[in-house]
Amino acid sequence: MHLKRQKTPKNWPIPRKGTPYVVRPNFNVRNSIPILVVLRDILELAQNRKEVKKAIHSKHILLNNKIVRDEKNPMLLFDILSIIPSKKNYRMELSEKGKFQIKETDINKKISKIINKSILKGKKTQLNLSDGKNFLSDIKCNVNDSVLINLKDKKIEKCIPLKEKAKIIIIGGKHAGETGIINNIDSKGKNTESTIDKKKVNVLIKQLMVIE
Fold first, then answer.
1. Which among 174, 172, 164 has a CA at the least distance from the CA of 195?
2. What share of the chain in percent tops pLDDT 90?
3. What is the DSSP letter of 149?
4. Distances in Å between the alpha carbon of 72 and those of 2, 21, 25, 30, 196?
5. Quick one: which of 81, 74, 80 has its CA closest to 30?
6. Domain with 99 in it: what CATH number?
7. What is the CATH classification number for the domain harbouring 174?
8. CA distances to 33, 57, 128, 145, 180 from 73, in Å
9. Which residue, 145, 160, 175, sits at the end of a domain?
10. Are 67 and 150 contained in the same domain?
11. Which residues contact 168 (CB under 8 A, 6 or more apart)?
C-alpha cells in the first residue's frame, strides 16, 4: 500500500512535489514515518528503495536497538535509528512547527508515554506504551506518566511523572512541537493549564508528553 504524496501527513518533512506516491508505514500513519522515507528522503543516506532494502537485508539498520526487517517499519517520536556501518544514531523529534525532524544523537535511550497499565498473574505490572511496546516493571508509575527506556539494556530506567512543574512537549493540536511547564492539572485528570512561551494555555493530557 502507498500514500499519495499530496495526502501524506502534514508532520512529514518531505516535499509535496515529486513522485505521485510514497510508501505507507505498516501502522500508525499519522504518528510515524516509514524507514524507507527516513533513509532515502530525509537523511538522504540512500538514493533509492533498492539501496534501503539492501541495507536492511544486510542487517545494517537498527530501530531502538532491534534489527529492521521491513522498509515500511514506522519510526515514531523519540525512536532511535542506528546505522551500523557508520556507527551513527538518529532520533525522531518534533520541531516547534509540529513537523517531525531527524537529528543525529549519541544517546541510546528514549522516552515513551504510558497509555495503559495492567496487573498480571503474580502481581506483575505491565506498562503499555505509546510506541506500541509493553514492559514488565517494578517501577511505580501511572497512566500518562512517561518512562525513560535504556535501549541497550531493554529496561525502564525511571518514571517521569505527570505533575505540576513537569516539563512537557505538546504532541497534538495547534501547539504541537512546543514545550512548556504544567501549572496545574484539573480534578478529572484530563486537562492542564500550562505555560508555553510565557503564555498560559489549556492543553489536554492526551495531547502532551512529559519529558526530562
1. 164
2. 69
3. E
4. 10, 14, 5, 14, 35
5. 74
6. 3.10.290.10
7. 2.30.30
8. 8, 14, 19, 26, 31
9. 160
10. no
11. 179, 180, 181, 182, 192, 194, 203, 208, 209, 210, 211
pLDDT at 18 over 90: no
Q: How far apart are CA 56 and CA 67, in angstroms?
A: 8
Q: Is 6 helix (H, G, I), strand (E, B) or coil?
A: helix
- State pLDDT tens for residues 32-53: 999 999 999 999 999 999 999 9
Coil, strand, or helix at residue 104? Answer: strand
Query: Per-residue confidence at 192, pLDDT binned at 50, 70, 90?
Result: very high
Question: What is the reported pTM?
Answer: 0.89
**Cβ(169)–Cβ(178) under 8 Å?**
yes
Query: For residue 193, what pLDDT is reported?
Result: 96
179 and 153 both lie in a single domain? no
Instruction: Report residue 12's pLDDT band, with 50, 70 and 90 as the boundaries.
Output: confident
CA–CA distance, 98 with 87 (Å, rounded to integer): 28
Residue of 98 and 4 predicted with greater confidence: 98
**pLDDT band for position 177 (50/70/90)?**
very high
By residue range, what is the domain housing residue 135? 109-160
Are 183 and 156 members of one domain?
no
- Residues 9 and 98 grouped into a single domain: yes
Considering the domain architecture, whether residues 57 and 150 belong to the same structural domain is answered as: no
State the DSSP code for 100: E
9 and 100, same domain (yes or no):
yes
pLDDT band at 159 (very low <50, low <70, confident <90, very high): very high
